[in-house]
């Protein structure tokens, strides 16, 4: 039997009903071109919408990265409003009163803990995912092929080079560009160990009710363990923590399989 407080997850559609607006979530064409970081972000956002019981449509586009206002994938369109990025989406849902389950019943200490864990997970998983698909030799070849497949020659070569340069710049400013593969794996292992210590069986991070942290954490964990890559050392780190795997299955079952 689920330990979820069902009253926290009741349907909350009055924004849609009042304005006759169905939000549209723009995603990349998943089957042949999505890369691990984008796949993780797509899962994070979709889990967030499911957590809020928001009905939405999905629109897959080859050029979704170019369509996004800041280049981030995915992005959400509410009528004439376009939002990209996890934090802006959370803020928008709360502002429009359509994110009722996001109004977490956390005390001040838990809020601080949640924000610290979210910061740690975002920094660690996002940078590790980018590092492993663009700077690990075996994975880089596959990433270049997938990313460039949606563009004609020679634009595909130009776009791949620009993407690699952009990711390198992001990792440089995050202090990750000089890390070795072993350094990255140690960072991920430390993050996973910290998460695993505080996890309980068949519950969300803060107990019976979900929070934005659960959407963020599930998206990254599930994306890493379900994505096939030539080099899967990143996945092996996650699998070395059974609590994280059980947590991922619990969230998947509750929001995706019910």
Give structural notes.
With about 260 residues, this protein is α+β, with helices and mostly antiparallel strands. It folds into two domains: about 25-95, Glutaredoxin, CATH 3.40.30; about 110-255, Glutathione S-transferase Yfyf (Class Pi), Chain A, domain 2, CATH 1.20.1050.10. Helices cover about 60% and strands about 5% of the residues. The chain has helices at about 15-20, 30-35, 35-50, 65, 85-95, 110-135, 135-150, 155-175, 180-195, 210-225, 235-240, 240-255, and strands spanning about 25-30, 55-60, 75-80, 80-85. A four-stranded mixed beta sheet has the order 2-1-3-4, covered by helices on one side. Strand 3 (about 75-80) and strand 4 form a beta hairpin. Helix 6 (about 110-135) packs parallel to helix 10 (about 210-225), helix 10 packs across helix 11 and helix 10 (about 210-225) crosses helix 12 (about 240-255). The radius of gyration is 18 Å and the shape is globular. It starts with 13 loop residues before the first helix and ends with a helix. About 35% of the residues are buried.
Summarize the structure in short.
This protein is an alpha+beta fold and 258 residues long.
Helix % is: 55-70%
Largest sheet: 4 strands, mixed
Identify the overall geometry.
globular
Structural class: alpha+beta
Strand order of the largest sheet: 2-1-3-4
Give the total of beta strands: 4
Secondary structure tally, helices: 12
Strand content: 5-15%
The CATH architecture classification of the largest domain is Up-down Bundle
Q: Order of helices and strands, N to C? A: HEHHEHEEHHHHHHHH
Low-confidence stretches: 1-18
CATH topology of the largest domain: Glutathione S-transferase Yfyf (Class Pi), Chain A, domain 2
**CATH secondary-structure class of the largest domain:** Mainly Alpha
Round the mean pLDDT to the nearest integer and report it: 86
Spatial separation of the terminal alpha carbons: 13 Å
Number of folding domains?
2
| Rg measurement, Å | 18 Å
InterPro entries: Metaxin_GST (IPR033468), Mito_Protein_Transport_Metaxin (IPR050931), Thioredoxin-like_fold (IPR012336)
Protein name: Metaxin glutathione S-transferase domain-containing protein
Domain Metaxin glutathione S-transferase: 190-247
Pfam families: GST_C_6, GST_N_4
